[in-house]
Amino acid sequence: MTWFSLASYWLTNSVIMDIVGTPSATNKNKGWPFGNDATPVVNNFVKISYLVFLMLQYILALGNRPKGSKVAYTLSFIYFSIVQLYILVLSFYLVAQAFSGGNLDLNLDDGVAGFIGSFFTSTSGLVLIALVSTYGIYFLSSILYLDPWHMLTSSWAYFLGMPSSINVLMVYAFCNWHDVSWGTKGSDQAGSLPSAQTKKADAKTNFVEELDKPQADIDTQFEFTVKRALSPWHPPEEKEDANLDDSYKRFRTNLVLLWVLSNSFLALCINNEGIRNLCLTVVRPGILRLFSGLLLRCRFSGLSGLCGFWARLGCCVVFRGVDLNFE
After folding, report:
1. Which parts of the chain span the membrane according to its record (predicted)?
2. Cβ(271)–Cβ(277) under 8 Å?
3. pTM higher than 0.85
4. Which pLDDT score is estimated for 248?
5. SS (H, E, C) the chain
6. Which residues of 142-174 are buried (b: 16+ CB within 10 A; e: fewer)?
7. What local confidence, expressed as pLDDT, does residue 275 receive?
8. Contact predicate 39/33, CB 8 Å
């Protein structure tokens, strides 16, 4: 699921903006918060600028130092935080509309059975379950840990920074897969060995000493020189040695291509009905329900694992207390 977090985050934001902000005749939904005419335009602008800032991260991560691009990275963090704040406001509005009898596709006329049936089959109900399972886990965990105050003081910074950790930090990590020096803090550089201190003595006179050679050695050296002078000249063959750094960069390139193409393919498969619908101006309940169902199943599996961990932790605490009482 982490591999497709780039596409899943984009799809989640798009689905929430479409459900809340795009008017639809099927569920009698009204555009909120800017009205039926302005809200789709604002949402489309947010989506286009979201993709522009996402492409900017690849340009910044491929060869640029973060310290040399402070302004661009700062603007990216601020923009993704604003988008996340906007999505949180829409999510809370969606939850409030669902439980206050708003104009969502929930059956409120046939009693509890009709409401439950429509809740688990409608797009809005699935999105609501996904939101509650996502943010409710944090609140429930903090209450079980008997430290719920950080949810009021520090959770807002974590929630606003979640898209930046995926769209900025993860993109930088993938694009710099070949370079391990930025995470080692200099530990990859070997220290220099101690060297001996030498001092050249000043000679009074320079002289050349020639040793006497036997005649056979002189003839052999002369014959070798003549043969080398008479032999035709052949250009030296350049052998390209395998460079370890090039292999790392090639692996990085293939990894980034596979990551980007797989996430793009997932996004296009879920909301693709042609180039015109890439702006997501029309709500497609079938496609949205499919994505929401997949998201709900992933969240439910994570919630089930967390409940199992809580149960095991509770048993350990109980048995530990029993052992202490016997002691």
Report:
1. 41-60, 72-95, 115-144, 156-174
2. yes
3. no
4. 85
5. CCCCHHHHHHHHHHHHHHHHHCCECCCCECCCCCHHHHHHHHHHHHHHHHHHHHHHHHHHHCCCCHHHHHHHHHHHHHHHHHHHHHHHHHHHHHHHHHHCCCCCCCCCCCHHHHHHHHHHHCHHHHHHHHHHHHHHHHHHHHHHCCCCCHHHHCHHHHHHHHHHHHHHHHHHHHHCCCCCHHHCCCCCCCCCCCCCCCCCCCCCCCCCCCCCCCHHHHHHHHHHHHHHHHCCCCCCCCCCCCCHHHHHHHHHHHHHHHHHHHHHHHHHHHHCCCHHHHHCCCCCHHHHHHHHHHHHHHHHHHHHHHHHHHHHHHHHHHHHHHHHHHC
6. beeeeeeeebeeeeeeebbbebbebbbebbbeb
7. 42
8. yes
The structure tokens listed for 310 are 């809580």
pLDDT reading at 302 higher than 80: no
pLDDT at 251 over 70: yes
CA dist list (Å): 205 to 96, 118, 143, 201, 208: 99, 105, 90, 12, 10
Which residues have C-beta within 8 Å of that of residue 177, sequence separation ≥ 6?
248, 251, 252, 255, 256
Q: Residue 117 is which amino acid?
A: G
Q: Please give the Cα distance from 91 to 87 (Å, whole number).
A: 6
Question: What is the pLDDT confidence band of residue 276, given thresholds at 50, 70 and 90?
Answer: very low
pLDDT at 261: 95
**Long-range CB contact pairs, 120-126, < 8 A, 24+:** 121/289, 122/27, 122/289, 123/15, 123/19, 123/285, 123/288, 123/289, 123/292, 124/19, 124/27, 124/94, 124/98, 125/98, 126/289, 126/292, 126/293, 126/295, 126/296
